[in-house]
Design goal:
This protein has about 400 residues and is mainly alpha-helical. Helices cover about 65% and strands about 0% of the residues. The protein has two domains: about 75-120 and about 130-255, Four Helix Bundle (Hemerythrin (Met), subunit A), CATH 1.20.120; about 270-390, no CATH class. The protein has 18 helices and no strands. The longest helix is centred in the middle third of the chain and has 26 residues, at about 230-255. The two termini are about 75 Å apart.
Amino acid sequence: MRQSSPQSGLALANSSRESPLARARKGRALQSRTRLVHRFGATDSTENSRARQGVETLTGPEERQLGKILSQPMDYIDHADFHASNAAEMIYGAAEINRPDVTWYRPLMDDFISARARAPRPPKSQSTVLLTGAQERILFMKYNFARFSISEIQKQVASRTPTLAEAREMLRWYAIAKQYREQLAETNLALVLAMAKRVRLSEVDFADLIGEGNMALMRSVDKFDCGRGFKFSTYACRAILKSFSRHGIKVTTQKKRFGAEFDPTFEKSNHLEVVRATHERECADEVKHIVVANKAELSDIEIKVIIHRFGLDVSLAADLAAGGSTPAISTETLTLEQVGQVIGVTKERVRQIQNKALEKIRSALKAANPTAAVEMAADLAARDGRADFAAN
């Protein structure tokens, strides 16, 4: 008896929260993919083994493409001619229509978007096609019949494993449908540009407008019914203009919600860093002045400890040396142990001298500027890691 894995149990629990239609579609897609794996092989070694034995099979990309085709029903615009016995011969017996030349599209778009000077456009080539109503009908009939054929095969294999011939037939019809869909879209690319010139949407970027129009054009190709007797341009132009209107409303709503446009230069501001650096510089200058003038009445040993521990600049040592109170000494920031080695005392004694000197400096700061004294003392304490000194 086969035991269900934890993964399958979790999938069953999640599927209970889905709609019946979603579960049916997912189950059919999973069943189809499972049948394809068992039918055509799931690993490269199996495929290579069958190839060596001369057994025809689908390639990896073909299997993935077939899985996508079987995962959802194929939509199409039905026509009475599709149900005739000789429908394929009747529809595809018509003369082929050349695909249009769309090499003009990219340079023209570059000119519209970047407003650069464009070289004179070459004359239209012979492959540029302006379709008549009859030619449009032929292309749409071929496109929809290919989708109709895929749908019919999907119905046949819904409850069984598709054969290799049926799988290749679906792939062939899918390639045909894709070819005619691209041809119809390329033939009518100019409709998007023509409609874009007619609208006046100052807040919408032109490139975004063209993108929305191209998507509307592709949807129009999928939904157009040539059996109604209208030209495709009549249907597509209204759809393109409607998509422009929806996009304009969306952009306007977004700009009302977010009044300022995104500017990468304002994404990260260094204002706090600048203010902090300015404050530290002012604090250092004030402390330097107090130490140089010895307003805190520091002893020579306390001055040495402060200079070594907090790395006061060289000018301070020079000023002290010129004043004769202490010789010029190194201003590199040293640890407590290193300072103790310089002045010949223990690390703990250096800490005591430093704390006493900081208390004197704090008192001098408070007397000179009561408002800034707390901030400056907190800055000194933060550099030394003395939270108790900052709190006081």
